[in-house]
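Problem 12. The chain below contains 133 residues. Write out its predicted structure in token notation.
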Amino acid sequence: MSPQFRIVMLVIALIAFIFVFRRIGRAQMKVEDALYWFLVVIILGVFSVFPEVTEFFARILGIYSSLNFTFATFIGLLLLRVFLQSIQINKLEKKQEILIQKYAIDNCEHNRPKVMPYETSDKENAEENKTTV
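Solution.
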């Protein structure tokens, strides 16, 4: 891994750390989500400061270069994140569906139309429509 790329990775890790930390401070991010991103930042920092780690794991896994291992690691982490968010979205959609159904049932029971004291026949309705036209 080239020294320039290692510096870029370290700068990105520091910027991401600051960004996530500020989001937590402003209460714009849940702590669970922040922990995931801190883990990603730590891994990125370790890979940039200690390239021997990526070379070691690349060699063990039979990956051609440490850079390929780095990309594969982060692609895997991002795929994991997408999978976890997909599960979370499905749970929220189910909750939303249940809430909509409960809301519809409650409104249906409370806002039933009042029954008219007498019902007009179809002939009377037709006659009324003719006179108003």
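Discussion. The helical segments are 3-25, 31-49, 51-61, 66-110, 122-132. Students who got a different answer should revisit the alignment rule from Section 12.3.
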